[in-house]
Amino acid sequence: MQIIECVPNISEGQNETTIQAVCEEINKVAGVKLLNVDPGKDTNRTVITFIGPPNAVVEAAFNLIKKAQELIDMSKHKGAHPRMGAVDVCPLIPIANISMEETVRLAHILSEKVGESLKIPVYCYENAASTAERKNLANCRSGEYEGLEEKLKNPNWKPDYGPALFNESIKKSGATAVAARDFLVAYNINLNTTSTRRANAIAFDLREAGRLKRKGNKLTGPVEKDENGEPIRISGYFKNLKGIGWFIKDYGIAQISYNLTNIQTTPLHKVFEKTCERADKRGLRVTGSELVGLVPKRVLMDAGIYFLKKQQRSVALPDAEIIRMAVKTLGLDELKPFVPEEQILESFLEADDSELIDMNLRAFSFETASESPAPGGGSIAAYCGALGAALVTMSANLSAHKRGWDDQWEVFSDWGSSSIANQKKLLTLVDKDAQSFNLIMAAFKLPKSTDEEKTIRLEAIQAATKKAIEIPLEVMQTAYASFEAIKKMAEIGNPNAITDVGVAALCARTAVIGAFLNLKINCNSLDDKSFVKKVIAKGQKMADEAGDFESEVLNIVNKAL
Hints:
Blueprint: E1 3-6, E2 9-10, H1 16-27, E3 33-40, E4 45-52, H2 54-71, E5 87-96, H3 100-117, E6 122-126, H4 137-140, H5 148-153, H6 168-173, E7 176-180, E8 185-191, H7 196-206, E9 211-212, E10 233-234, E11 241-248, E12 253-260, H8 268-281, E13 286-292, H9 297-310, H10 319-330, H11 340-343, H12 361-369, H13 377-400, H14 409-444, H15 451-492, H16 498-523, H17 529-560
Parallel strand pairs: 5-7, 6-7
Antiparallel strand pairs: 1-4, 1-5, 2-4, 2-5, 3-4, 8-12, 8-13, 9-10, 11-12
């Protein structure tokens, strides 16, 4: 699932009714989750945070800007924070399974719609900027609201979208800055010292701004300057990293407070390791760390995988175990308990439709046995495939950790990783298959009193039927893909798990054949016979080859026995 975050800042921090009305526009969009509303009375500004699927977030952002335009009058606004519009800034941030390039495209879609539909001037900054000068928000916002009328007259500052003529509408709304930017991670590292000066020294080693260059490289030496009279700086180890040391009275320790403004170029785990290294050189020790606010799941997943690989351990583990490795290694639970569900962004968007796979084994078994037609054979086929993939992952992990096979750990880790990916996908298909059946039932219940209602009902039935064909096809494809790892583990895996691999082959073939049966029965109800012909041919080929794969694997297993 693709997820992006949006953090609009509106120029209202005092009127609770206005703030609530603006935020309510977010709640109206399905799939979007409002995470935080942080009003500031002195700044007369509210920071709003929400996440969701890309198109839904763009829709919510547009609706929010439209409502703010209606309720906020910039000609009457006063506040301590720099601002130029009712919605001053509206950055989009990629969180999961989406690239920065895609996020930039979404930022421009939003900007164009705001400019054309709402007639608000829009400046694009950060990664969405049209020129190098506009990358910096401070440049886009220079002159603020009070200087906007003159700014719009300057051809060099023509908005990227929307009108360039200051009128009564713009007098009220001001201008908006829209961005695509990376996620900012606020991250503190704990030290076994009370010295702010020593904490700062480590921060200066790492942060992009580094430290001022002094003559003779002495701490008390005069600051060196370039030919323009500007201070010369010695850059730190990392780009896109800000850092400073401070003393935390409540904890009784010094910390280094970091802001990671690009988690792709500056991974959190690398910052942690380098901090440990520089602390050690100064006779200090890192005792733990803490994350401030929310963080994308991939930050902890990347860290956990990195530390597992350093230990030469397989990374074919459930996400929860990988995250646990990250939490323990980074010491995120030193000062207070670290609760992933409360600090990982994606946790707020967990699907509510995973009813079956969240059951225990006994409940799932009896739910299948009940008079309800779902879950049925399709869900069971998907679950069989998931169990088969799980057995292969187990074999790969046992092989990676086998005494004497240490030089092959990475090979087995890779096979296990591919297998656990199949396992995760098949688990989601357990519920999706049941849901696809329910969609067909819902379509049949649609009214059919008039010709128009009959047409709508028929179209809904056909669409639901096609979905009920595509899901088992996906089950077949995923279970079929498992055979590559199954055969490889039969050939080179830990011999103590050879029979487990044999069972995995049986499960995978059951998944393929079982899903194919479901696919075929649903094909009988679809009018698109061209689609049916292609799908049946594709399914038959996988079913035949799955039988061949099963035979090959069982031959290997039986020979080993």
